[in-house]
Amino acid sequence: ISSLSDARDKKNITDLSLGLDFLMKIKPRQFNWDKREWYDENKSDGSKMKETPTAGFIAQELDEAQTTANSEWLNLVLKDNPEKLEATSGNLLPIMVKAIQKLKIESEKLKEENINLKKENEKFSAEVESLKSISEKFTKLEKLVNEMNSVRQTTSGTSNNINTISNKGETK
């Protein structure tokens, strides 16, 4: 299936504004065919419903989505016969391509951000390791200072005892 697409036959060419946001509003569905035309007086009672499900869109839902988005020009629904609405889901292809392109750009940005976050994380990890090393050195230094103070107090106490003994000897 092909259609005319020659740029020489087109005017007012602009980038498509519809994309992922629009696609998120449409609903792909699974269903079983149970065509009214298979029944007398076109009234379905479910007795002729196909057993095998299929996938597609509901014309009324597509029409609501394009109307809400003010994009009836997409012609997602053929309304020539109001008794048999037809979905032209092939018209969604340009929107799907636009959405995929946008997702690709977002994915690349996220990859770049992830790389930057990894680099930043590595930097912070190195800083944490450095702080751990400094903390360990500080703990050792604190222990040495405490030991020195303990020795100083012991030495000071011994000096006082010697002075006291020596003073007692001089008074005799």
Strands in their spatial order, largest beta sheet: 1-2
Q: How many DSSP helices?
A: 3
Using DSSP, what is the number of strands? 4
Helix content: 40-55%
Question: Which runs of at least 5 residues are low in confidence (pLDDT < 50)?
Answer: none
Distance between the termini: 128 Å
Order of helices and strands: HEEHEEH
Content-based structural category: mainly alpha
Largest sheet: 2 strands, antiparallel
Q: Calculate Rg over CA atoms.
A: 42 Å
- The average pLDDT value, as a whole number, equals 90
* Share of residues in strands: 5-15%
Shape type: elongated
What does this structure look like?
It is a single chain. The protein contains three helices and four strands. It has helices at residues 20-23, 59-68, 93-171, and strands at 29-31, 54-56, 77-78, 86-87. A two-stranded antiparallel ribbon has the order 1-2. It is elongated, with a radius of gyration of 42 Å.
Can you give me a brief rundown of this structure?
The chain is mainly alpha-helical and 172 residues long. Helix content is 54%, strand content 6%.
Entry keywords:
mainly alpha; two-stranded antiparallel sheet; 3 helices
Secondary structure elements and their pairing?
Layout: H1 20-23, E1 29-31, E2 54-56, H2 59-68, E3 77-78, E4 86-87, H3 93-171
